[in-house]
């Protein structure tokens, strides 16, 4: 009987937009119909009579289904068209950051073509690129979107600092490398570079480490303590389909990523002490690769279900 | 001459009737339905669909809240509970009705 009532109710609402509200209504109606049928049977009616009576008494449900369905449609339209426009401050921030970055790139190009020195060109690009990219990260994170609230300013600032450290470190180590190599943009032969580059590379890596390690530690910390910023309407959408499986999955992901970095740091130190610091940093490249794979795997899994 | 029930008049008061029933105890759709039929001594034939619209309206206005029962067999029942806003609305509607009733009695 339960199946019969369920399929009857299901059929009434065939063709209406699926939503949590509609499913709730279906469940409510089913339970009430069953209560009524049960009582009729207890009063001596046959199952068939009881069912017929119950659905006769139900009356016209289409109006309320229509209303729910319409609400759902409005919700979807709302999500599609009501994108929050950027507020003026943020828009100005993005514009300035873009300007700074462009200025840096153009200055770098001018320096390179005027003086023919890659070292000087990169050096002049360095402050502009670092500042503007950190600004992009900050602005992007504090920005509220249709699906997510903006990040807290302090937290976004920490992300921006970590980014600045990482990018600044990479720039500085490239600059150090180029300066040591004395290439000045002209490469005579590959042999020359290989024969000559051990010293400069070592310098470059030693300069890189003090920037990269704090930056990565900061990223790991921030990543592990990340809070959910999704908006309620997105969340209900999400939990409806995924239930609890996904939060568990994300926890596993966080732990895996954390473990990955701890391991690689350990391997880096061990290799450095036992073998050579010159090469042990390569571990981090693999780590970043693994991290990206892990992230791709989990975000792929997520997007399948939630959207 | 036996009077005929004015469904329109009653329908306009469905929300208040539902509130009146929920004032005594939390309840679910079919039980509320039965209580209304009982109270009208079988004179008023109400459709369940009317009740669902009423529940939704009242819940949206914050006059009732709902929760799921823990039945396992035959689907969970959705129980409704009156809120203090619902109590207030009930009292006001009832006072309004008394007032209107008196006037109509005088006029007819």
TrEMBL record, chain A:
Top-rank taxon, per record: Bacteria
Keywords: Membrane, Transmembrane, Transmembrane helix
Residues spanning the membrane: 90-113, 119-142, 154-178, 201-224, 256-275, 281-298
Entry keyword Membrane: yes
Protein's recorded name: Beta-carotene 15,15'-monooxygenase
Automatic annotation (TrEMBL), chain B:
Organism of origin: Lysinibacillus contaminans
PANTHER family: PADR-FAMILY TRANSCRIPTIONAL REGULATOR (PTHR33169), TRANSCRIPTIONAL REGULATOR RV3488 (PTHR33169:SF14)
Gene3D superfamilies attached to this UniProt entry: Winged helix-like DNA-binding domain superfamily/Winged helix DNA-binding domain
One Pfam family named in its UniProt record: PadR
Stretches assigned to the Transcription regulator PadR N-terminal domain: 18-90
Protein name, entry field: Transcription regulator PadR N-terminal domain-containing protein
Domain of life: Bacteria
InterPro entries tied to this protein: Metal_resp_DNA-bind_regulator (IPR052509), Tscrpt_reg_PadR_N (IPR005149), WH-like_DNA-bd_sf (IPR036388), WH_DNA-bd_sf (IPR036390)
Transmembrane region(s): none
